[in-house]
User: Which sequence fits this backbone?
């Protein structure tokens, strides 16, 4: 009788254990799930930190085979297509006036944009990245800085009066990197601004709209077989957007189109130099509602200087369509 009771008790314990085991297993899995999610989150954070460190040490490493402080640019193989992220940008200068576009000039290629700035104006990094070159070149860029960015671009800032960064320094978009100037092969204070992909110059107007102080979109899709044609289209659009007027448009008298000299352009002849003063003059066509104060602010000069250049008083009224000289 005692044996029968023991067997019965053992059977009940066995059945109970079998019944409870799946529940205990489910409880264990339920307790384990939050741990797995936390581990996944930790792994994701660690992965992002690793990627950020790699990008900081070698921005756009998938495009470039080396990191060197010895040269401004060196062309390498271009991808057939590449999407350039233009988000989280900062305009390199607040100036809206382009004095010379990208393209052939005086028989040679001008591989950037010349933007009117004054000596001492702050020049800023266009995107996050790492400073690759900081040096002086008397026969070309003058004081210049090259930054390699995480989005694949390299930007070059030339003719500055002073550099404010060091080689291999990390910079954020908008950080001051230099001051406007007139150093190197230059005939007037301006910023020479280049954008390059794998060392190959691309028209900055494809990505930057200086008149509106904005980029052209969140992304620019570079295509090797189309970017030359797109550059020409961007030049035509940019040329009309600058709201500057040539001597011919103002007076009806044509003058030679002699852009400012940059690293890619031969020095002008003595005869050409005689015309530079006339070519440097820039004009503003007064629009409805504009005042001397609003025009001076837009063109980056003082009201006193604007009035002095045009030989008028501060209280003189201006009319729509009137032409004012601002440099």
Assistant:
């Amino acid at each position: 009788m005692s044996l029968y009771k023991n067997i019965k008790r053992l059977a009940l314990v066995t059945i109970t254990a079998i019944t409870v085991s799946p529940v205990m297993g489910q409880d264990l899995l339920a307790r384990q799930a939050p741990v797995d999610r936390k581990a996944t989150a930790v792994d994701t954070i660690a992965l992002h930190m690793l990627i950020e460190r790699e990008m900081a040490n070698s921005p756009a490493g998938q495009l470039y085979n080396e990191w060197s402080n010895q040269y401004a640019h060196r062309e390498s193989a271009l991808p057939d297509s590449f999407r350039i992220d233009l988000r989280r940008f900062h305009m390199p200068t607040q100036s809206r006036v382009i004095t010379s576009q990208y393209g052939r000039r005086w028989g040679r290629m001008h591989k950037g944009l010349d933007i009117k700035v004054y000596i001492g104006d702050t020049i800023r990094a266009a995107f996050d990245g790492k400073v690759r070159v900081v040096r002086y070149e008397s026969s070309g860029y003058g004081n210049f800085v090259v930054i390699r960015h995480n989005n694949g671009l390299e930007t070059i800032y030339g003719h500055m009066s002073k550099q404010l960064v060091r080689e291999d320094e990390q910079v954020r978009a908008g950080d001051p990197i230099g001051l406007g100037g007139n150093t190197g092969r230059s005939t007037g204070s301006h910023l020479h601004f280049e954008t390059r992909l794998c060392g190959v110059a691309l028209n900055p107007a494809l990505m930057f709209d200086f008149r509106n102080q904005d980029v052209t979109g969140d992304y620019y899709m570079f295509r090797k077989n189309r970017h030359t044609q797109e550059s020409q289209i961007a030049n035509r659009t940019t040329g009309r957007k600058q709201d500057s007027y040539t001597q011919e448009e103002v007076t009806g008298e044509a003058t030679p189109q002699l852009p400012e000299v940059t690293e890619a352009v031969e020095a002008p002849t003595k005869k050409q130099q005689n015309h530079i003063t006339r070519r440097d003059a820039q004009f503003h066509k007064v629009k409805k509602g504009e005042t001397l104060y609003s025009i001076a602010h837009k063109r980056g000069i003082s009201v006193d200087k604007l009035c002095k250049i045009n030989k008028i008083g501060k209280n003189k009224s201006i009319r729509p369509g009137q032409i004012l000289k601002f440099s």
In short: DSSP finds six helices and 19 strands in the chain. Residues 240-280 have pLDDT under 50 and may be disordered.
